[in-house]
TrEMBL record, chain A:
It is a peripheral membrane protein. It comes from the Archaea. Residues 11-386 form the ABC transporter domain. This is Oligopeptide/dipeptide ABC transporter, ATP-binding protein.
Automatic annotation (TrEMBL), chain B:
It is found in: Cell membrane. The chain crosses the membrane at residues 14-34, 111-134, 146-171, 218-241, 280-302, 322-348. This is ABC-type dipeptide/oligopeptide/nickel transport system, permease component. GO terms for biological process: transmembrane transport. InterPro entries: MetI-like (IPR000515), MetI-like_sf (IPR035906). Keywords: Cell membrane, Membrane, Transmembrane, Transmembrane helix, Transport. It comes from Metallosphaera yellowstonensis MK1. Residues 107-345 form the ABC transmembrane type-1 domain. It comes from the Archaea. Gene3D superfamilies: MetI-like (1.10.3720.10).
Length: 452, 354
């Protein structure tokens, strides 16, 4: 586990406290969360319903609703950018909380975080069925994510494809076959055809068709030239005229059209059949599984450093669930990106995670490498969760007795104390601190502290 | 989008229009004829005739209009005439002659007036509704809400009078009577008896004849009536749009748009507005009904020679030809717009299929 330590932290959450102000009272959803995410890992986040998993994800994105008060804490991106500073400055003040004031700050935050969201940081929400805009085509919704962050990528793709010749493609094909992907990228660079490599590779990496077919597809890339309207739109863009009313429209149309091609590639990668048709469809025409993949496609299209996936599989049936898990694993392997994978299903997390954090009542109860958590869980809550996982050789499942505390008035001391079989008097008095029991394995429980 | 199914749907809808129009015209026909035959006679008989000649003329007209038959039989004679394209005669102070000619003279003006109003609604109402929701609870939002609620609770003639007092009398910046200042058009070859040629829309005709001073004057005369109409309709639209915008802005897909890093301007004006417009389009059928009634009032208040003005004249002068024809015309416009709106709805909401 030394490797984990050496890796750079891409995200650090310190003592994050968020509460929701509602008519029925103040719900303390996050009560001091400390967590970090390292480059290239999948961090599984587990916990019962209401433990604050989604709230944590939304807080990282800066997408909290207006009634959410950030009482304290930091979310540091790349070790420096403090996402929630503005909301915390207001939320930590000792005044009566006014959602309207908070909303004003949220609006400013939306402007401030625009560049980061979708590019460095992306999230797949828990509700895949309602997350797509019903009146916009699927292809547009994917294309747009690229258009607002990396329009030059679309320009490069379009121009390089327009410029390349059959001879170019043949040479590149040979390079790819004999010397591999790295050499292809170099060769593309040399021929001044940047933007073509991703189009070639997206075909080359496909697993649903055999090699001869791939070759044929790659060699026919030069057939898809730009029409005069697209050329006009792109040249408007390159001259910096995209802010001029009518011209800007032409530029956007041309780039979005290229974005549809990119969307087709992404959907192919995500295993959606007939992607050329699907990009022209509206969300209601797709099944739940397809919509879920479109939402994932939107999240990954810009290759963000961090992707938060909030229960991406819960709404799906088992086969599609397996496909999505496979997808996350392959994304992680191929891109060295970091993921926070939220689920209340530990067996799902076991499949994809490198580390697992267990949340209980707005706090991290235990966090550690996946193997350690499964083989030597320390926190009584984690242990009970493990016993509740259905497996082949278990004869009975042990439900956890008792229920989650009311988050309006969480118990003093350890929040699990009312359900814990090993409860001690001091558990009801003090909150147990996080103790590191072994490399990267931290537990918040007095039992662990005792033994040390 | 345009499929066989769509055409079948349109055809079915048009077939349903027929009984609606029959019902509407029958009702008005009966109401008008309840007053007896004298009205009809008064309209067609030459007032200078007396004695024997007058009796003969009455007999002839009774035969021609089947006045000795029951009302519903008369209605079917009328309907038969309408179906052959004969809408009868109108006899009002502003025009006497065939109804069909009256329509070609007055309808274009009303169309232009409505288009101007629609443009104002589009340019002012929709942005206000969106702005109000996006900046909810701000002073601007409060202001817009008071503004739209006030308008909403005002009858249209009150809006007209308020505008006349404010812009026409107090500030004295805009004309508020007729379609043009009379001295501007005196002696023009293409303007006779209050009617301009060839399109009968003064603004367009003036431009066609290169007379931009008259065109400008006609344009100024258009502002107040169209603004009145626009304000009356806008009130409802702002309220509906604001409410539906607020609802849409809470949706998951708006959060996703933000999570993608789409600029706020685009989130509001594309992602949210396109969805929020759906209830506005749905309610537009009622709006158009209100608009038609509004046209009658507005054109009368501003002496604007359009179809509404003519209708008022017909009503005031017991002009049966005019009353029946405008009833039919307004009915057709209303049912056709609801049909068109249904089709528009299918375009803006991809979930609707016929
Ligand atoms: N918008 C909101 N307004 C008020 N309370 C909220 C809001 N969102 C979440 N909460 C409350 O915050 C707490 C944490 O909710 P959260 O959605 O983060 O839980 P979760 O772990 O994601 O649960 P689940 O597994 O059901 O998705 C809950 O008590 C919930 O009722
Ligand atoms: Mg959740």
């Amino acid at each position: 586990m030394e490797r984990v330590k050496e890796r750079a932290k891409v995200l650090e959450i310190k003592d994050l406290r968020v509460s929701f102000h509602t008519r029925r009272g103040v719900f303390k959803a996050l009560r001091g969360v400390d967590l970090e995410l390292y480059k290239g890992e999948v961090l599984g986040l587990a916990g019962e319903s209401g433990s604050g998993k989604s709230t944590l994800g939304l807080a990282i994105m800066g997408l909290l609703p207006r009634n959410a008060r950030v009482e304290s804490g930091e979310v540091l991106l790349d070790g420096s950018k403090d996402v929630l500073k503005m909301l915390r400055d207001y939320g930590s003040r000792d005044v009566k909380f006014d959602p309207r004031k908070n909303e004003k700050l949220i609006k400013r935050l939306n402007k401030e975080l625009r560049e980061v969201r979708g590019r460095a940081l992306a999230m797949v929400f828990q509700e895949p069925l309602t997350s797509l805009n019903p009146v916009l085509q699927v292809g547009y919704q994917i294309a747009e994510a690229v258009y607002y962050h990396d329009p030059m990528r679309l320009v490069r793709r379009a121009i390089s494809r327009n410029r390349c010749t059959q001879a170019d493609l043949r040479d590149l094909m040979t390079t790819l076959k004999t010397k591999g992907e790295e050499a292809l990228i170099e060769e593309v660079e040399k021929r001044n055809l940047r933007g073509l490599e991703e189009q070639i590779l997206s075909i080359w990496r496909r697993q649903d068709i055999h090699e001869a077919k791939k070759e044929k597809l790659i060699l026919s890339l030069d057939k898809h030239k730009l029409d005069s309207k697209d050329r006009l739109g792109i040249s408007i863009y390159l001259r910096g005229l995209q802010r001029v009313p009518v011209l800007g429209r032409l530029a956007k149309d041309a780039l979005i059209k290229e974005g549809y091609r990119l969307a087709v590639e992404i959907l192919t990668y995500l295993g959606i059949p007939h992607p050329e048709k699907v990009v022209r469809m509206y969300p209601h025409e797709l099944s739940g599984g397809m919509r879920q993949r479109v939402v994932i496609g939107i999240a990954i299209v810009n290759n963000p450093e961090i992707v938060i996936m909030d229960e991406p599989t819960s709404a799906l049936d088992v086969t599609i669930q397996a496909q999505i898990l496979e997808l996350v694993s392959s994304l992680k392997a191929s891109s060295n990106r970091s993921f926070i994978f939220i689920s209340h299903d530990l067996s799902v997390l076991a499949e994809v995670s490198d580390r697992i954090a267990i949340m209980y009542a707005g706090k991290i109860a235990e966090v550690g490498p996946v193997k350690v958590i499964f083989e030597e869980p320390q926190h009584p809550y984690t242990k009970m969760l493990m016993d509740a996982i259905p497996t082949m050789d278990k004869t009975e499942l042990k439900a956890i007795p008792g229920s989650v505390p009311d988050m309006r008035s969480p118990p003093k001391g350890c929040s699990f104390s009312n359900r814990c079989p090993f409860v001690m008097p001091k558990c009801k008095e003090m909150e147990p601190p996080m103790v590191e029991v072994s490399e990267g394995h931290k537990v918040a429980c007095f039992l662990v502290g005792e033994r040390k | 989008m345009i499929s066989i199914k769509l055409w079948v749907y349109v055809l079915r809808r048009i077939l349903i229009l027929i009984p609606t129009l029959i019902g509407l015209t029958l009702l008005v026909f009966v109401l008008v004829h309840i007053q007896g035959n004298n009205l009809i006679l008064a309209e067609y008989i030459n007032p200078r005739l007396t004695g024997q000649a007058r009796e003969l003329e009455i007999q002839r007209l009774t035969q021609e209009f089947h006045l000795d038959q029951p009302v519903y039989v008369q209605y079917f004679y009328w309907l038969g005439q309408v179906l052959t394209g004969n809408l009868g005669y109108t006899n009002t102070p502003i025009y006497s002659g065939p109804v069909t000619t009256a329509i070609t003279l007055f309808l274009p003006n009303t169309v232009v007036l409505s288009l101007f109003a629609a443009l104002l609604i589009w340019l002012i109402g929709i942005p206000l509704g969106v702005f109000s929701a996006v900046n909810r609870d701000s002073p601007a939002d409060q202001g817009i809400r008071v503004f739209s609620f006030t308008l909403y609770s005002m009858p249209i003639y009150l809006i007209a009078i308020a505008l006349i007092l404010l812009l026409g009398v107090y500030l004295n910046v805009l004309p508020f009577s007729g379609e043009v200042s009379p001295q501007m058009v005196a002696g023009l070859s293409w303007f006779r008896d209050g009617i301009s040629y060839p399109t009968h829309v003064l603004l367009i005709d003036a431009i066609l004849h290169g007379d931009y001073a008259v065109a400008w004057n006609a344009f100024l005369h258009l502002i107040m009536p169209s603004l009145t109409l626009a304000l009356a309709v806008m009130a409802g639209i702002i309220r509906i749009l604001r409410a539906s915008m607020l609802e849409v802005l809470e949706q998951d897909y708006i959060r996703l748009a933000r999570a993608k890093g789409v600029p706020e301007r685009v989130v509001n004006n594309l992602h949210a507005r396109r969805n929020a417009m759906l209830p506005v389009v749905t309610s537009f059928g009622y709006t158009v009904a209100g608009l038609l009634g509004g046209v009658v009032v507005v054109e009368s208040v501003f002496d604007f020679p359009g179809i509404g003005y003519w209708t008022t004249q017909a009503l005031l002068n017991n002009d049966i030809g005019g009353i029946m024809a405008s009833t039919l015309l307004f009915g057709i416009v209303l049912v056709l717009t609801t049909l068109i709106l249904d089709l528009v709805y299918a375009v803006v909401d991809p979930r609707i299929r016929y």
